[in-house]
Design brief:
0% strand; elongated
């Protein structure tokens, strides 16, 4: 048995790992968790359909794209709670672009 995956599938999986950080970069700490989850779901769905399109092959399969979207979303959620949040990366992504109070010593 020989299992091979196209490069598109591997890139899609890599994108799935980084999607939670991307969601953190475009949202703020006060953004509702449901809105963040919805954004992650939308980006994961887009990722799944783009990966299926990029993979080429015999034809475009909407079923495969839907499964890839589900895998991308699940991977994103697991990465958020398993790696990005405990290591503090999620919090640092949320802080990018926020105004930090200036400290003046004068």
């Amino acid at each position: 048995m020989n299992v091979t995956l196209d490069t598109a599938y591997w890139l899609g999986l890599l994108v799935s790992v980084v999607l939670p950080v991307l969601v953190g970069l475009v949202t703020t700490r006060v953004t509702n968790g449901g809105a963040k989850a919805t954004l992650l779901l939308a980006l994961s769905t887009l990722n799944g359909f783009i990966v299926e399109y990029a993979a080429g092959g015999d034809g475009y399969s909407v079923g495969t794209a839907a499964v890839l979207s589900l895998v991308a979303f699940t991977t994103g959620v697991l990465m958020h709670f398993g790696l990005w949040k405990p290591t503090g990366v999620a919090g640092k992504a949320q802080d990018v672009g926020t105004k930090q109070p200036s400290v003046s010593g004068v």
